[in-house]
């Protein structure tokens, strides 16, 4: 059984996830925690639930999803995994972070790279890695078939999609990948996005104005 805990952090209202199995093995996905209070909220949950973090995963490396990377790595002594096509995206954060008011942003390096031909193990649970670029060149999502859940980052939102006007963005590619990599999942799949409320694949197939049945854009 896989459990998912959602936290919303930082001024971008970014969704950070802790995913864990029945034995307490856990992964932290997209830690947006920057302020000390946010970090304490995340740490307290992990301690209270007696979890044992094993991996730090980034769906992609825009600033709002990586603000807590260095702190999580150091606090829980776990490796950071990203897709190698997002290395430049991660490295650029330290350059522009002060412009967004994050003067104390601490950069860190990845310890390994995610690949679509290699599943991720969290305890006795297995996550599929799916490559969904367009919002960011190295964007991936994590799909857990047994629970019918998908940690989707900034690819697919409730009635929206990730923006594609940032460096490395590609609107047509994102639409194509949503259709091939996400809309190929069962309609009852619950989508946990990088911002906003959860949704389902079936709902977005009908109602999403960008890629749904009655798309307007």
UniProtKB/TrEMBL annotation:
SUPFAM superfamilies: Metallo-hydrolase/oxidoreductase (SSF56281). The keyword Nucleotide-binding does not apply. The keyword Membrane does not apply. One of its GO terms (molecular function) is metal ion binding. Gene3D superfamilies: Ribonuclease Z/Hydroxyacylglutathione hydrolase-like (3.60.15.10). Pfam families: Lactamase_B. Keywords: Hydrolase, Metal-binding, Zinc. SMART domains: Lactamase_B. Its cofactor is Zn(2+). Residues 13-195 form the Metallo-beta-lactamase domain. This is Glyoxylase, beta-lactamase superfamily II. The lineage of its organism: Bacteria, Pseudomonadati, Bacteroidota, Cytophagia, Cytophagales.
